Amino acid sequence: MVEKTFTEADRNDGIEPDMVDQGHAPKSTTGGNGTLPMNMIQALNSALDAKMAEDPNVLSFGEDAGYFGGVFRVTDKLQEKHGLTRSFDAPISECGIVAAAIGMGAYGLRPVVEIQFADYIYPAYDQIVSEAAKLRYRSAGMFTSPITVRSPYGGGIFGGQTHSQSPESLFTHIAGLKVVVPSNPYDAKGLLTACIEDDDPTIFFEPKRLYNGPFDGWHEKPVSPWKAQELAQVPAEKYTVPLGKARIMKEGADVTILAWGTMVWVSLAGAEHAGVDAEVIDLRSLVPLDIEAIEASVKKTGRCVIVHEAPKTSGYGAELSALVQERCFYHLEAPIARVCGWDTPYPHAFEWEYFPGPERVAEALKSTMNGGR
Amino acid sequence: MKKNTKALSLRVPEPSGRPGDTPDFSHLKLDAPGAVARPDALSDHHEMRDLAFRLVRVLDEDGTAVGPWDPKLDPETLRNGLKAMILTRAFDDRMHRAHRQGKTSFYMKCTGEEAIAVAQGMILPREDMGFPTYRQQGLLIARGYPLVDMMNQIYSNASDPIKGRQLPIMYSSRDYGFFTISGNLGTQVPQAVGWAMASAYKGDDKLAISWIGDGATAEGDFHNALTFAAVYRAPVILNIVNNQWAISSFQGIAGGLETTFASKAIGYGLPALRVDGNDFLAVWAATQWAEERARANRGATVIELFTYRGAPHSTSDDPSRYRPGDEHEKWPLGDPIARLKQHLIALGEWSDEQQEAAEKDAVEQVRAAGKESEAIGTLGQSRPSVKTMFEDVFATEDWRLVEQRREVGV
């Protein structure tokens, strides 16, 4: 019931209803170079569809993820196309879902599981942290489990504290896990495919506020749909976007912005709002991290602003900040700034005070341009 | 709503005996050997619920195999089982002593529980994946895994098959159907279910088998495992080794006073067997029943193996502080090695002399392996290259690990 509300909230924010209602097997004509316009849901669905068609060891399961196709429709029609045992419903047991996937992975399959909301991932935390992440190490490579844990994540959808969290730093801290967050349909498909093909366990967070459009944080304005974006032109065939390679979303000379997921679009809007020539780097994967791209950019600009939705304290921004000062200290012309969620639980009524929007990003950019004063 | 007129009181379960008390097992309801009916392995689980509250036993007081659960094993199999149990006990004794001598940091014996892992390790082929706890060393020993490799792991020495990564006794061997042990309790039961689901998904013929202690059945993972096993009819054997004690907490703290551990299966719609875990033949027969059922695609069986943890929980534990000192001696279901020995002698297939020779031989095998392993090194005397500390975190090292390895200078 709650999930229904979110779908509707999403629609009110400017999503094309036909994509939600009629499934999302792309209906449009093929664009240039064999691409199709897709929103992020369609791109993720396409990634799963192509991998399942190619590799019989890939299967997908999760709560409501079988017949129904998932509350966000990412696994829509996979059961119909690939069969009941390859895309099925799981009991409401995140621990059981991940544990079963670990066993399947150890057998030799490549399971992709859906945790309905990242906020529900905690019952599976022990299985992810103590088991999936550690199998290879503790057995000296005798046992491994290449599972992919997909989970809709992040805020901006009036989900309150149990449907809005960004818990990536709880996973980046764990030796043996890879953590990936796409910001657009093209990357979503390529990165998810790369995660499925990766021989290590991967946590794949899907910024649900981006499912239907590149939300830039100007919440009172209508959101443009994905189809207007170049990054929504998605090849119909399988392809991968390598893990550990950042994307420079916008080149700039004055300050480097490090962001991922929804915050990539918020950062672009923030830079525009501030009138600052920022270089916006979409990290795409937090682990492995493209440290070279970060270092090169900060050395060029001499300034760094980190933007994330998760609470500031012990957020991944803290790690990035430390890395940047360790590697670029003598190039820095201003203190590294962080624009983050507050250290409160994610609030319902105060969503837009909590959510780091373009205005907060713009303020941080201006302050950084002013030497941090 | 009417207010209570009587004050409520909180119940905290207590065992029947504490240090200094005379062991009291009068509360145990033990079926006589041969008294429990054996349903067909493919029967409807609804029709065999009583078995969750009974106790399958085969060997009687005189060492005779009686009743419908007698697996009718040939003497050679029985002798092999006995020898593997003897070897397991000899191995435990030596490694426990090695800890006392400062040769390793930790050890855990399975004294009194040898029949379980040994019988099950003999029945199931090693292609079936076992998800053991830390008290199933008998599985490796029954399958002929090199003792010296077990010791190398215990000593974390240069030849440790898992490169000094784990606490002693957390073995791992894919080739012997022995999944890498986790020190976190209960986590591997739902993984075993997933492994079994994968086998079924692929149309393979392999089973999974898992073990969990009575105490750890209180973990959510156990209940998640039973839900998944039932829902997807996974070909898995789910053992609960009820050895009465979870470190210092008696089985009542895990709910054992309210119902049997086997009966937990009923609520999930799974068949359950409750078995004398100190009776090699009963363990064998029950496991075979569950195996037949799983191989026929009829799904999982829960087996409660009723036994007693004769040894301390680990080398870090002192049971004299929480249970009567002679509780193990007085355990009404005896000792698995003594009982199988008695049976073989009753059959005319074994003798006290052969027993003595087998014990001597076991000690000799362990001593020889010990010599070999100690020549490589006990804990701290030798170890894998420090460089390996940074390997196997991922399939390929990322830049952080490369940098950190260089920082260590290796």
TrEMBL record, chain A:
<dbReference type="GO" id="GO:0007584">
    <property type="term" value="P:response to nutrient"/>
</dbReference>
<dbReference type="InterPro" id="IPR005475">
    <property type="entry name" value="Transketolase-like_Pyr-bd"/>
</dbReference>
<dbReference type="Pfam" id="PF02780">
    <property type="entry name" value="Transketolase_C"/>
</dbReference>
<dbReference type="InterPro" id="IPR033248">
    <property type="entry name" value="Transketolase_C"/>
</dbReference>
<feature type="domain" description="Transketolase-like pyrimidine-binding">
    <location>
        <begin position="38"/>
        <end position="213"/>
    </location>
</feature>
<dbReference type="GO" id="GO:0009083">
    <property type="term" value="P:branched-chain amino acid catabolic process"/>
</dbReference>
<dbReference type="Pfam" id="PF02779">
    <property type="entry name" value="Transket_pyr"/>
</dbReference>
<feature type="region of interest" description="Disordered">
    <location>
        <begin position="1"/>
        <end position="36"/>
    </location>
</feature>
<dbReference type="InterPro" id="IPR029061">
    <property type="entry name" value="THDP-binding"/>
</dbReference>
<dbReference type="GO" id="GO:0003863">
    <property type="term" value="F:branched-chain 2-oxo acid dehydrogenase activity"/>
</dbReference>
<feature type="compositionally biased region" description="Basic and acidic residues">
    <location>
        <begin position="1"/>
        <end position="14"/>
    </location>
</feature>
<protein>
    <recommendedName>
        <fullName>3-methyl-2-oxobutanoate dehydrogenase (2-methylpropanoyl-transferring)</fullName>
        <ecNumber>1.2.4.4</ecNumber>
    </recommendedName>
</protein>
<dbReference type="InterPro" id="IPR009014">
    <property type="entry name" value="Transketo_C/PFOR_II"/>
</dbReference>
<keyword id="KW-0560">Oxidoreductase</keyword>
UniProtKB/TrEMBL annotation, chain B:
<feature type="domain" description="Dehydrogenase E1 component">
    <location>
        <begin position="83"/>
        <end position="376"/>
    </location>
</feature>
<dbReference type="GO" id="GO:0009083">
    <property type="term" value="P:branched-chain amino acid catabolic process"/>
</dbReference>
<comment type="similarity">
    <text>Belongs to the BCKDHA family.</text>
</comment>
<dbReference type="InterPro" id="IPR029061">
    <property type="entry name" value="THDP-binding"/>
</dbReference>
<feature type="domain" description="2-oxoisovalerate dehydrogenase E1 alpha subunit N-terminal">
    <location>
        <begin position="7"/>
        <end position="41"/>
    </location>
</feature>
<dbReference type="InterPro" id="IPR050771">
    <property type="entry name" value="Alpha-ketoacid_DH_E1_comp"/>
</dbReference>
<protein>
    <recommendedName>
        <fullName>2-oxoisovalerate dehydrogenase subunit alpha</fullName>
        <ecNumber>1.2.4.4</ecNumber>
    </recommendedName>
</protein>
<dbReference type="Pfam" id="PF12573">
    <property type="entry name" value="OxoDH_E1alpha_N"/>
</dbReference>
<comment type="function">
    <text>The branched-chain alpha-keto dehydrogenase complex catalyzes the overall conversion of alpha-keto acids to acyl-CoA and CO(2). It contains multiple copies of three enzymatic components: branched-chain alpha-keto acid decarboxylase (E1), lipoamide acyltransferase (E2) and lipoamide dehydrogenase (E3).</text>
</comment>
<feature type="region of interest" description="Disordered">
    <location>
        <begin position="1"/>
        <end position="26"/>
    </location>
</feature>
<keyword id="KW-0786">Thiamine pyrophosphate</keyword>
<keyword id="KW-0560">Oxidoreductase</keyword>
<dbReference type="Pfam" id="PF00676">
    <property type="entry name" value="E1_dh"/>
</dbReference>
<dbReference type="GO" id="GO:0003863">
    <property type="term" value="F:branched-chain 2-oxo acid dehydrogenase activity"/>
</dbReference>
<dbReference type="InterPro" id="IPR022593">
    <property type="entry name" value="Oxoisoval_DH_suAlpha_N_dom"/>
</dbReference>
<dbReference type="InterPro" id="IPR001017">
    <property type="entry name" value="DH_E1"/>
</dbReference>
